Structures are given as C-alpha cells and as structure tokens.
Amino acid sequence: MRREEMADLTAFVVVAEERNYTRAANKLGISQSALSGIVRRLEEKLGVRLLARTTRSVAPTEAGERLVQTLRPMLQDIDQVVADLSEFRDKPAGTIRITTVEHAARTILRPAVTKLLKDYPDIVIEIIIDYGLVDLVTDRFDAGVRLGVQVAKDMIAVRISDDVPMAIVGSPAYFEQHAPPATPEDLVEHRAINLRLPTSGVLNAWRFLQDGREVRVRVDGPLVFNTIDLILDAALDGCGLAYMPLDQVEKHVAEGRLVAVLRSWTPPLPAYHLYYPNRASSPAFKLFVEAVRHRR
C-alpha cells in the first residue's frame, strides 16, 4: 500500500469516528474542503459510498462501517507502536552495539558500562571483540573503539583513554635460554608470540622509537593468536616474547613471573577513541558516550 493511500484511509476513519467534517479536519490539521476531497477520492477509487451525508451529520454507510471496523485495530496498533517508540526518546532505553578490541573492552568499556547499567537498567550494551576494521553501518554497529590512528576521517571520534603504554615481556624460563635483547635489532634472535590482524591478514607490528622516530618491527615466532589473553598465557609459559599493553603485564612483572625488556625503546600507542557516524543518536547512546569519554 502506498503512503498516500494509507493517509486517505486514516482520514476517512477520523471522519467516520467524529461524524463531523469540521471536527475531523481540525483533528487532522487540514482544511474541511481538502478532507472532503480525500473522502470523495477514496470512494471513487473503491467504487462504493463510504459516508452518508446530510446537512447536519455524517455517518458511515454499511460498507463504510465495515471498513472502519477493519481499519480501526490496525491504526490502533500503529499508534501503540509509535507510543512505544517514544520511550526511546523520553527515557534511555534500547540496545547499543559496539565493536572493539579486547584490551579496550576490559580496561575502559566494562568498568564504564557497569556503572551505567546500574543507573539505567533499560539499556542493553552488546560488546563484540574484533580486531578487524568493520563497516559500522553495514554490520549494524552503533560505534567502534580503536586506536586513534585507525579511526576513519568521516567519523565522529571521542577520546576515551590516555595513550596506551606498551611492554615487551618474557618469562624467566625463556630468558634462561635467550639473552635479553638490548636493542630492537636483537629481536631477530628471539621467538615472538604474535597477534594476527584479520583485516590485513598480517601479524601485528611491534613499535619502537629509534633515533627520535617510530619504527615498526615484525618478529617471527612459533605461536600466533587472535586474542591477547592467550598471548599472555603463552608468555607466562615461556613460549617467547610478547608485545602487550603494560597494564596487562605489570603485576606479573612486579611479582617476577615476567621480565620486561627494551623499556626505553617502547613508546605508548595512541589513545583509544570511540567513533561513530554523524547521525542523530538516542538518549541511551549519548549517555554511553559520556560514560566512556576520557577525562583528565
């Protein structure tokens, strides 16, 4: 059914219920003559008379009454759906889908949404871990979280963290078999536990500062994962060196289970950013943005 046909049927039902063109026209916000023309056009199209008119009143014919009885529940259902949607406008509710990497999910998103959901129980937040760079619109995500350098230029970007300190670590057992590297060049003699990036298909490069500029090095090794939890476990097991966010390993370093190397060579990564398309957002999403926004 075309939009104008639905509008004509709705106008007819209002006239039939009001039994008065003037009141119906006021309710619909159109002129009486325009409303009369709508009903006349509808009658001509259906080939039956829908309203019996006198100088004092308007009443549905038998055919008109049957049509009203059929349309009224449908229009009431539509009104209810619209009323239900108003809840999304008037109070924070609904589902927010976020694509992110696991480190940001663990250290930023989960702590922030824990408090948010206690205050707003009608919000549902779905967090999907994915190291790939997805299309937010195509994959029906409301927003993504990635390092600042990975955010597309046509997106709104909100900083949600400090820069991310990184560390290169290995277990004491590993260093019993391999001398600790003194420079990044020494890594050619070492075994790495790597992270595979699904979008490009390559191994995640390790970043270093050398002579005041950043260089990226890919280190070969026996193990490749797509989750940093498994990389950390493998490093603790002595399988090789791991390139990890510092906050994920510093407790192990402090307690002697891991040893950090090349500290002065390892710069932080750019801060995480929440990014999303430039479009109207719900009250729930606005609350989410404020909950994760970085505050110094």
From TrEMBL:
Its source organism is: Rhizobium leguminosarum bv. trifolii (strain WSM2304)
- Asked whether the keyword Ligase is assigned, the reply is no
* Residue stretches spanning the membrane: none
UniProt cross-references to Gene3D superfamilies, sorted A to Z: 3.40.190.290, Winged helix-like DNA-binding domain superfamily/Winged helix DNA-binding domain
Q: What is this protein called?
A: HTH-type transcriptional regulator TtuA
Record's Pfam families? HTH_1, LysR_substrate
Q: Which residues form a coiled coil?
A: none
Q: Which InterPro entries match?
A: LysR-type_TF_proteobact-type, LysR_HTH_N, LysR_subst-bd, WH-like_DNA-bd_sf, WH_DNA-bd_sf
Q: Which family does it belong to?
A: Belongs to the LysR transcriptional regulatory family.
